[in-house]
Design goal:
This protein is an alpha/beta fold and about 400 residues long. It is built from 17 helices and 6 strands. It holds the Pfam family AAA.
Amino acid sequence: MEHFSIIQALCRSAMADPSPAVRKQVERLRDALAKGGEDKQASSLAGILATSQRATEVAPSRIERSKAQFAGETLGPNTPVPVDRETAAALAEIIFPAQIQGRPPLFNPIVTQAVATIVDEWAHFEALSELEIAPAKTCLIYGAPGTGKTRLAQWMAHKLDLPVVLVRLDGLVSSFLGTTARNIGNLFTFANRYRCVLLLDEFDAIAKVRDDPQEVGEIKRVVNALLQNLDSRRDVGFTIGITNHPKLLDPAVWRRFEVQLEIPRPDFAMRKAIATQFMPPIEAPDSHLQLIAWFTEGATGAEIESLVRTYKKAMAVRTTERLDLLNTLRQFATLNAARVQSERRALLFSEPSRLFRAMRDDAELGFSMTDIAEITGKDKSTVSRQLGKAVKAEEES
């Protein structure tokens, strides 16, 4: 098979942390090669599959040893969760590892490496213990809405093979005096009893600055109760806090978290990777993925996923052979005006000559006339005339 060395490298990378679907496709490729008489190449893929299987069989034993360091009972599907005494509403949701997507969220290499370090610390608990140090047990994840913070926290729990006790802190707030602090205490008592990852979402709902003149004495008592319970859990289990508004947090809250991880908005390369991840089963041309990444400057992963859904819908209902990508982008920009950077939106609805010029001259995009023609459905001579028109207009201005 031509370029098999590249295919082999891709398979090896994919099998480093494979989903069942990825493993199945590599097995299909192995079988197809064997059937076609490519025995050497089929054997190579069989070796990659076997190595991955052995790693999968070994990894849980390390995780099991790390899980043993979490004191407490095992959470089960029928374990009752604490409830608010006045409303009887559940104070938490239990999410088990099997319910969490095993595929890691996409971040830039620096964030990805930092997250891997946190997980690896628990996988190598014994080695750290020999040095009389412990893995990080508290982590605050912050960033703009839609950047994948909650998904990241759940994926970390999945890697540790521990259930998540998911708490949205705004749901703990009660109008009854003293009830909110009691809810917090009951919740932490529950989490400390079981082996789990305690995930405190919407963390800023309670952990606000205690000196805020707009807040009454009750919320200050609530923050104090939260701080005390965080301290009591420090040596019990793994706790993750999530917030979209880090500036609202009390400085004392920050000090309770060993890891303070900011999730940035994705850059061009990551936006393209995110669009690629959400695109299947559609196989979009690379130029389309690049334009989607360019168009979503400043967007979050959730917003890119929304645009990809619009693209896939357009592909499903198109009545012509060619998808008009620019019209699809304009449709998205019209229906999601607040989610699109104003500069990109203005270019999209500008004269074709101006848009084509931007597509050609942008350092990240750098489209050729052939690329622009393919995306717009124009011939290269038309694209060339439009580009010339843009240059002339610029000179005249």
